[in-house]
Design a protein that fits this description.
- Two copies of one chain form a homodimer.
- In chain A, 59% of the residues lie in helices and 8% in strands.
- Chain A has seven helices and three strands, in the order H-E-H-H-E-E-H-H-H-H.
- In chain A, helix 2 packs across helix 3 and helix 6 runs antiparallel to helix 7.
- The first copy, chain A, is elongated.
- The termini of chain A are far apart.
- At the A-B interface, helix 1, helix 4, helix 5, helix 6 and helix 7 of A face helix 1, helix 4, helix 5, helix 6 and helix 7 of B.
- Chain B binds a DNA duplex (30 and 30 nucleotides) through helix 3.
DNA sequence: TTTTATTATGCAAACTATTGCATAACAATA
DNA sequence: TATTGTTATGCAATAGTTTGCATAATAAAA
């Protein structure tokens, strides 16, 4: 179970509310780990019950109040320990690949459409990635240690993304050879 | 929910028992969709209750009998319909990337070890992929339609895998610059 | 002033997945 | 003969995730 660890990782440097976490998870760490707000709120409560996170209510003007969570000493220790554990590779479960196993003359055009949509989505994402990389991670060797790790995650995202675009192009060419 | 669809996809051409499916899921389709035998048996029962799969007991000599499942007309229709639905991209949830966000001088060596292990695992997998590709998918344009789809899934696996190896090398170089 | 959007948090039900345990037929080995 | 390994299927408990619903404060627009 790693959602809790992903959340704690997001709280390493900043204290955040559930709402802010949910928003941030749509970008940055969320590129590598997604979660709905329901899950995040649930996990936050569990973690603060365990005393791995501290919570405090913040009064706001013009907005509803929020509950801000931050890492405790115990939380940092537990997270650091988790990093030392070993992880199994998890297969990327992707509907699209299962669907491709079902390719026939009737659905080739539909699948080509899905691949085109994925391609566009990936283009947008790569644009974001690249923007972040150029702005904050231009010279990886000179970064402070932790940022090097973040850079590597970003680099994998970029490489895999570019690879995916190339695959989409190959796939679209091959799918075009399937006559309806 | 796509485990049911992955199972039906595996049964498109051959009738298989739960045990055989579980074994096959460790290779082939299983590269893109993993499931434990418990899940598979459960899903098989659900699908045959829905009459999307037929079941029959096969008497064996020298081994316990097995229950073999096969696609029904209704199952094929439901699967074909599912292929036409649209799919959301699911974020690859990978512990390793979350761990990298926690990079520090204390865990750099450990993470390098994990990456090395992943690299070796991917090498073995690529070896398998390549063997399959050379043997069965050497000339994609001339394949029958459905096999073209399978080829594309394999091609993505190969491309992403090679990309991953390159990333591992980059990561190991950068991690080596982190002083303990 | 009613509606709509944003910020903010949560419950409950249903579904999906993992872990641990259990059984049993048969073969091969010690 | 007792143990171990392979084939074969399953239950139960727990954990994790998704979906649908619900609430409420405030701001901005219609």
């Amino acid at each position: 179970m790693a959602l809790s660890h992903a959340i704690m990782t997001a709280l390493l440097d900043d204290d955040l509310s559930g709402y802010e976490l949910a928003r941030d998870f749509e970008t940055s760490l969320g590129f590598f780990w997604q979660a709905s707000h329901q899950q995040i709120y649930l996990e936050l409560r569990k973690l603060s019950d365990k005393h791995w996170l501290s919570k405090r209510e913040v009064t706001q003007r013009g907005k509803p109040n929020k509950i801000v969570y931050g890492m405790t000493r115990a939380g940092r220790e537990a997270l650091a320990e988790w990093v030392f554990g070993s992880t199994r590779t998890q297969a990327a479960k992707d509907d699209l690949l299962v669907k491709l196993y079902n390719l026939d003359t009737g659905n080739a055009a539909h699948l080509a459409g899905e691949i085109t949509a994925r391609r566009e989505e990936m283009m947008r994402r790569l644009y974001l990635y690249e923007k972040i990389r150029r702005r904050h991670y231009d010279n990886p060797e000179t970064l402070p240690t932790r940022r090097k790790g973040v850079y590597l995650a970003l680099a994998l995202g970029i490489h895999q993304g570019e690879q995916f675009l190339a695959w989409c192009d190959e796939a679209l060419v091959l799918l075009a050879t399937v006559k309806a």
